[in-house]
Amino acid sequence: MNYRIRRFMEGRYGGDHLSVALIILSVLLTFAGSVSKLISLTLLSYIPMGIVVCRMFSRNIAKRQRENYKFYMLMRPVYMYYNRIKNRLRDSRTHRIFRCPDCKAKLRVPKGKGKIAITCSVCRTEFIRKT
Ligand SMILES: [Zn+2]
């Protein structure tokens, strides 16, 4: 980075996740504005962009970090949902889920073991399944 830019950014907040999200929101609004030909949406897209610029050059770093943290807490269910789906997809290659015939508990069993006896971890019922 250029020395003068670095000097200018010294003690300023810079970018974070919230800024990235706001930029995406702005791009989406610009896109929606051009597709729908609604000038109001295009104008609206300047608002998140303006916030990003103000936050990046802000010297109140503690306040910006709090905002970013609040945003993270707000988005946490979304992240968690996304991670759960991702893990389940990765898991489906190596494991299979069986339901206990007795108590209906979900049991996770490694794939490719042929016919095996599975013992339910909840009610100890044993049943045979092909994995
Ligand atoms: Zn069971």
Relevant terms:
131 residues; alpha+beta; two-stranded antiparallel sheet; two-stranded antiparallel ribbon; 4 strands; binds zinc ion
What structural class results from the helix and strand content?
Answer: alpha+beta
Ions, cofactors and other bound molecules: zinc ion
SSE series:
HHHHHEEEE
Mean pLDDT: 94
In quaternary terms, these chains amount to single chain
- Major sheet description: 2 strands, antiparallel
Q: What does the model show?
A:
This protein is an alpha+beta fold and 131 residues long. The protein has a domain at 3-93. The protein is built from five helices and four strands, in the order H-H-H-H-H-E-E-E-E. The strands form two sheets. A two-stranded antiparallel ribbon has the order 1-2. A hairpin with a 6-residue loop joins strand 3 (115-119) and strand 4 (126-130). The termini are far apart. The mean pLDDT is 94. Bound molecules: zinc ion. Zinc ion (ZN) binds next to loops. Zinc ion binds next to loops.
Topology of this structure?
Layout: H1 3-9, H2 17-36, H3 39-44, H4 46-56, H5 61-94, E1 95-99, E2 106-110, E3 115-119, E4 126-130
Antiparallel strand pairs: 1-2, 3-4
